[in-house]
Amino acid sequence: MTGPGAYDPEQHARLMVEYCIDAQPGDRVLVACTTLALPLVEGIHRALLGRGAQPVLRLDYPGQQEDFLRLAPDHLLDHLHPADLADMESVQASIRILTPQRPRPGDPARQARHTRTAQPVAAARAQRRWTLTLYPTPDGAQMAGMALDEYERFVSSALFLDRPDPVAAWAAVRAQQADLIGRLSAAEEVRLVAPGTDLRLNIAGRQWVNSDGKRNMPSGEVFTGPHEDSAEGVIHYDLPTTFQGQRVRDIRLRFEGGRVVEAHAEEGDDALQAALQTDDGARYVGELGIGTNAGIQRPSMNILFDEKISGTVHLALGNSYPETGGTNRSALHWDMIRDLRPGGEILLDGRPFQRDGQFC
Fold this sequence. Notes:
This protein is 31% helix and 30% strand. The protein is of the alpha+beta class. The model has no long low-confidence stretch (mean pLDDT 94).
């Protein structure tokens, strides 16, 4: 594909290696994805070698994870081999590449078991430099309701690859978000108000993170970990998503004392209920995030992009990020999105911070 805004995997690869993980000579860098992303993998491999780093490629065939969850006997599903953990502990950085594929229905309970088993690997990855991105696939385009060339341009815009200097564009995002964090850090309570939503969260003393594309590419959000017992009220998540291969739509949650006490989804309710049973921390809010990425204007059925839409807010059930001061621990971390652009507010200590998707 060529022309203005065309997706360029070589440019994407340079951004990942040089900006997101800042690969250094001697670094061992794990690159994990399916074979659908080979054009991007090739670019990343060359870019890593050009900086004196050692690429370690882990390529799955499309559907490999689904086959494992469907066919693995219990002793494989519930046991983490020491070599899998050692593999992650042996690297200085990791790059994970999502390759969207049409969801294949599976057993949410088996997925939850596997997520719990793999938690030590996720914890080890979090202790290293890591980044997550997406390669545009035909299935991704179909799920987003776009033609492939349109979807490729959508991805390019979200990553700022269509800007003259993508790194400078991400620096501007960092500066804008620093101003927002200054205001958020002075507040004690966040209140979210929209049709079907009236939720209060205590954020006093918690740290806000400026997500500027280093870890998620694309990014464009600020986030924190609210006090674990503070969520009170109701929220309706109006943007559909997929969770562990299953479409989930119109999630409604009610919180008391920080804990989900009622939960229902119009579509995919079995996945929601299974997720809530993951462990004791799965019913508590681990993250509150506010999207700021003006390069993303429409949902695409992919959380990496949709949670960054400027004018949206997302709350994750489950694990908190330690750098926010959050203490909730869970094998689950599921972001759910509320679009405030059609009519909604974020209030800080009762004062408007955002109205109808625009910062006040």
